[in-house]
Amino acid sequence: MDPVTQLLEDVLADVRGEDAGAVADYIPELARADASRLALAVTGPAGGTIAVGDADAEFSIQSISKPFVFALVLDALGRDEVLRHVGVEPSGEPFNAISLEESTGRPANPLINAGAIAVTGLVPGTDLEERSARIVAGLSAFAGRSLTVDEDVYASESATGERNRALAHLLRSYDILHGDPHVSVEAYFRQCATLVTVTDVSVMAGTLAFGGRNPVTGEKVISARTARDVVSLMTSCGMYDGSGSWLLRVGLPAKSGVSGGILALAPSQFGVAVMSPRLDVHGNSTRGRLVLERLSDELGMHVFDQHTAIATPRVSVEHDSDGTMRVGLEGELSFSGAERVLAALRGIEVAADVPHLVVDVRGLSQLHPAALAVLRAQVGRLGGEVRVD
Ligand code: GLU
Fold this sequence. Notes:
By secondary structure, this protein is α+β, with helices and mostly antiparallel strands. The protein contains 15 helices and 14 strands. The protein is globular.
């Protein structure tokens, strides 16, 4: 077994004995879930996915669908239009709270039910069938395979979801939802009943981690800006009223669902998904949280850990026969990376015997405009030039 698979297996083995929490039963069909299930998957930048545990077990995506439908709507309508209908502030309240802004009726954010229903209401489509088909197709693009709806879970939530139905009517009264609120809330129930595996969710997380490009299919599903917006939102609001302690302990933007799934990601590094049906008081998978805490602690995955390599480009120095000094840069040059390069160039300034300096940035995979501007200014001061093309 390769070392990463072994490591993931070990993490699962460590939490398997934990049996705190309870399977959600307010949607009757969810109560039938096998509570012993446990699965974990991680997806890297080239699309390689390692899945362990009950990796083939399908479960309904539930609230993990919310950031993705928000992403699709953001990409289609633009940030300003979407934010007229929903806020982006943590509610500090449970998932099904009536968190509506007093004057406008805007739900606090798209990751609680009220906000998610408002967002689903923005998906184009005249009837339920059309809107639902668009949502499932969108979720499928994130997962990289054709997903389907679990009709039993849908029927079960539709038969019992009076609170969500009430939220939809409330949103209609504020004109946040337009048209028939039933179409929006039923489309939302179908969206939540979409069937996925941990591998699907891990690839979906990867698509957000890698700027909106599905790392398996290569499809650009959403813009990099939208992916950044969604990841920002998950950081502050993804774990409901447990979002603050989650950020402190796990430090990965994440989204959980009542069927026991948790999606998390480290931007530009990996997507991860874990599933185990028993939930804590916040509605987050108990064993899922333990798994992600362990991965974060032991593998240094917390996003606010120090990551010097990300900010440091590779630097090579060559001298031509005419004395020209060529400084080549590779990797990513961020604002902080530019500062490190400048510190190196200051040493060159002291060694005044260099007749000409060329800083070649063509090998960089990513160059931030501010970094280029400071680099140009400093290299110009040394009488050198920056080669960009
Ligand atoms: N369909 C569920 C509901 O609206 C989703 C909740 C969740 O996963 O947190 O109640």
